[in-house]
Every structure is written in structure tokens, then in C-alpha cells.
Design a protein that fits this description.
With 192 residues, the chain is an all-beta fold. The protein is built from no helices and 13 strands. Helix content is 0%, strand content 47%. Strands 9, 10, 11, 12 and 13 form a five-stranded antiparallel β-sheet that branches. A four-stranded antiparallel β-sheet has the order 1-2-3-4, with no helix packed on it. Strand 6 and strand 7 form a beta hairpin. The chain is globular.
Amino acid sequence: LAGSNHSCGPTNPAVVFDGVQWYLFFTMNKVGGISGLGLSVSQNGISFSAPTKIIESNTVDFPSAIFVNSKLIVYYRSQNGQSTSVDRIFSDDFGATWSPNNQQANLISTAGAWAQGTSFANTQIQTHSVVYNSNDLVAPYKMLIVGSPQQVLGAAGTPMGGLLESPDGTSWTLSDDLPIVTNPDWFSHPEI
């Protein structure tokens, strides 16, 4: 980030506005050190503070952030060997503290119950995007997820996208077994 004394090579930005200030979450790709998820804050959406690291780990990336009921919620991809999951961390004090007690690991894993018996069973989660729709009284949390079947004999399967829904942001179900998108050339970052 310009003007920062941090050498972090930010990628995969996610921005959320709480009505007062802008929060820019991103993957910190630190050369020669531990990477993780970073946060910069802005009052005007143009000039951002020096980044702070909210999670320090070489196995996390792709943050997706929402602001719900005075709570900042960040969903991110976590990798453990060949398995991937979407995990969640939140802050009740506008990003001042991110307690490990507020972290939920393996929140969405393709080995989880939501994926069993579907096209997404045993896929690698590539990326995701989360929104909150306050007009939906049944399942206001929506997540577009992109997965790719596990590599078999060195060849990856066709990437596919699907929609997950949740009443509370923690318990997710696949809205339909059929992938909503399948395209071997589409492997990028979904936005909803």
C-alpha cells in the first residue's frame, strides 16, 4: 500500500462500508515472511491507513467481507495440504480486535455435509463471495462459491460455481445441486 512501511504485496481485495468508514481487507503476500489477511481503513474511501495484519498465516487468502448488525464479518479461504475450506472471523468493535475466539475454522468444507451427494463433494474451493440480503427473512446470507474437482492423475476437473445460503452466516446449504456455472475457462473471482 502506498505510504506504508509494510512490504506486503496486497492481492484479492474486499471492501465494505459501515456507514462511517471503509474497510479494505486483502491477502498480504509478504516476501520472505509469513503472509496472512490484512486490513486498512479509510474515512473517505480514497486514502487508507497503513495495513494491519488480522490473521498471520501462509495458508489463508481470498477475503470476502460484510457488515451486519454492527459486526464486521470476514470469510476467507484456508488451505490445509490438499483440502480447502472457507473460514470466518469477526469483530464486534469495528476492526480494532480480531479475537481467536471469534474465528470459526472449517466453516465450509467440501468434505462437509452440505456437499455430500452433490457435484461439489470433494472439490477444491478456489474462491468465494458473500453478501447479506436483509430482505430475505429465511436465508439472508448468500455465498457464491467456485470449486474445482480434485486433481486426478495431474489433470484438474472443470471449475464450477454454486450458490450457498444461510439463515445465520454459519450453517450453510447448497441452494441447488446443479452447479450454476461450469466453464473450464472461468476460474476467477466471483462477485455478487
